[in-house]
Amino acid sequence: MEQLQLDLGEPEGSPNLDALTAMYIKIRDVVRDKEEKHAEDMQELKEHLDAVSARLLEVCNEQNADSIRTSSGTISRRIQSRYWTTDWESMYAFIEEHAAPFLLEKRIHNGNMKEFLEGNPDVLPIGLQAERKFIIQVRKPNAK
Length: 144
Description:
The protein is mainly alpha-helical. It has one domain (17-119). Helices cover 47% and strands 6% of the residues. It has 3 helices and 2 strands, in the order αββαα. The protein has helices at residues 17-63, 88-97, 110-119; strands at residues 67-70, 73-76. A two-stranded antiparallel ribbon has the order 1-2. A hairpin with a 2-residue loop joins strand 1 and strand 2 (73-76). The longest helix has 47 residues, at 17-63. The mean pLDDT is 90.
């Protein structure tokens, strides 16, 4: 594995922006390569884990057991539920009819809120928190 030397320039002088930009791109590319390799490794492990889980579930189903104790650990079979809708208009009406806003998760869609605020600069929901900060984005030069 290649070691990257981190030299951010002389504290007293002007930073070498060309060198910093090249360093940024090199580090970003190494991070991306490692993340891709990690994702591949993780996918293979998840597939193995899924295969073992499926076999354990088969055994639980065959024995009609919700729990099986072994010397290596206890296997538990449980029901996992997931809910969704294909008709949001009806779901919103249902939630309103039954006074059940707790059926929804509490989060704000960032892109939609940004667009709403840009289109309605004089309207601001009470309690809205926002964080804005500058970030750096570096692109490789175009091939000549």
